[in-house]
Amino acid sequence: MSKLTKTVVDKSEPRDRQYTVWCGELKGFGVFVLPSGTRTYFVDYRNANNVRRRMKLGRHGQITAEQARTLAIQALAEVSKGNDPLENRNSARKAISVKELCELYIAELEAGRILGKGGRPKKASTKITDLGRINRHIIPLLGKKRVTHVTKADVTTMMKDIMAGKTRGIEKTEKLRGKSIVRGGIGVASRTVGLLGGIFTYARDDLGIIEVNPAHGIRKPKDAVRQRRLNEDEYRALGRILANAAEDERYTRTVEMIRQIAMSGCRRSEVIKLRKTELDTVGSCFRFEDTKEGQSVRPMGLPVLEYFDERDMSGDSPYVFPGERNLAKPFGSFPRHWEKIFAGTELADITAHVLRHSFASLANDLGFTEITIAALLGHATGSITSRYVHTLDAALVMAADTVSGYIHALLNGAELTHTHYALDRGSRKAALVRFLTPHQDSTAQAETSQRLAA
Question: What predicted TM-score, i.e. pTM, was given to this entire model?
């Protein structure tokens, strides 16, 4: 037998039955010729279990004889190492795609077996966000690739495509006339890479189909830090806007909710879904059952406390702000009302998160520490022990009173000159007098205050 070359293969005429032409130089390398005239290169070998295997290398015309010879040499080299190249190829072909991996991940997500922050199952709102990023960004850009073939370069390309808006579009939602506007951008790209990293971690740790997470170590763009906060003039403007909106009965409830968000620093969803059982007016605190940080106990400033004390809590609805048509659900018109209340005003650019950020910023202006502000807002760093306490630190309640009271005054149009509470001796002395002489009448209390001030 001679060396298998292009000339030899071309001269191999088809017969009535398939036959094989072997290479005289490389054992196991050959080409079989079909009656149709198709010629296919292959390599023949025995694996580590002494099982004979025949692996196709490609059709003559699509690859050359020399290219087929190189592939045969590589395959035989793998065999010499104890590997089975045909088995490896079949396994790679059977490997699931990124789309199939995402479907498995979504099933686990819906079953509550994908854990999020604090080792807790992901919340419904987070699931919706994850599904959106999977279906609108990850699957369109990487869905067809085999999971085992995805590289860091592929993930980086996906990230840049999202940043460039390649996946932007408008999609219909399940709601009547509902639509979802997909924009992409830096923030979405960065968070989508983070989600993809979680999906690949699931593929590595739970499914065992990859050994290295290709999304780890990707240099992600820094998300824009939100700097918007209200200054004191804008707080007064907010008060005027809300007062004007409250003249329309349709917006009365939304105005009240916005004021509570501004004075408490709560998240929008926490106020909208606030349950009566989560109000502890005796303890002057919120006892949220389920927030972004899990269970959370937060101080309630005096203006907020007095509002809830005066609010009518009768009725069968479990919510403080029930739906207009369905009392079993929370108030659902808040987003639409917000847009109408602020449309065309000087505060048209603000969001509920701006009110929360402004609450924290004002608390900082008034001299409260980062750990105190974190506790006021219910951040994880400030509520690590909140699950174990039943009464709040008096200093924390005082901080909530100070910040809420200051914002309440600004919303009502007051002109104030704020100072650090720790440096305001007059306020401290007045508070001490009231604490130490709770049973004196107002005249005696005033005299005592004057003596201390002197």
Answer: 0.65
